[in-house]
# Entry
Amino acid sequence: MENNEEKSFLECERWWIFVILMTAAGWLGAFTYTLRGNVFCNAQTGNFVLLAMAIGNAKWSRAGYLLIPISSYFLGTIISEILPNLVKKKNILRWDTVLIGVEIIVILILGFLPEDAPYQISQVAINFICSMQYNTFRQAQGIPMATTFCTNHVRQTSVHLVKWARNKNPESLMRFSRHALMLAAFVFGGVMSAALCNTFLGKAVWGAAAVLFIGFVDLLYADLKTEKGQLDRKPRGH
# Structure
């Protein structure tokens, strides 16, 4: 039975939703690296490093090209700040639910692209949806988390493992296990994506849509049934 603290969290804050999002993120990361230009589109640190190198080497066309995915990520964040208020006014679904639905549609479209289509189409589209996802889903049952990359999860597993070893604090062990689970989900998504890319090529990206669809159904049910009267509540971290 859930305690009162657990009941206070919205469905979009549940840790299993974040597991689904991390699995899909790992899937998309492996997909773009394997089939769409050997790049990772889930985050932008690598692109900023490449941008700095391009500027330092006076490769201006390369620098300009790198501004495209960076701008896409930037724009995705802006839109994910603006649209929630518009969705909220409709009082039908949460932005979180709508976003996952949008992600599924984008991924389905990408799967229909011919194999000789420019890589940039997939790269920019995935940059865009990952940016919105990262900015929308911020805390899993009160624990700050990223849903599109692993760096913070690696740090948090290390920190909470040391804290648990020192004090045997159950809270630290729980946080360690949650972050470790996110890492495992990301790797699982990447493994499945890499394996299926070899057989299904571009249509392998649909696996990420299938994973997200599980979360979409869960959130849709919450919006229409169990949390219908709470659509005005903001998830923690916003």
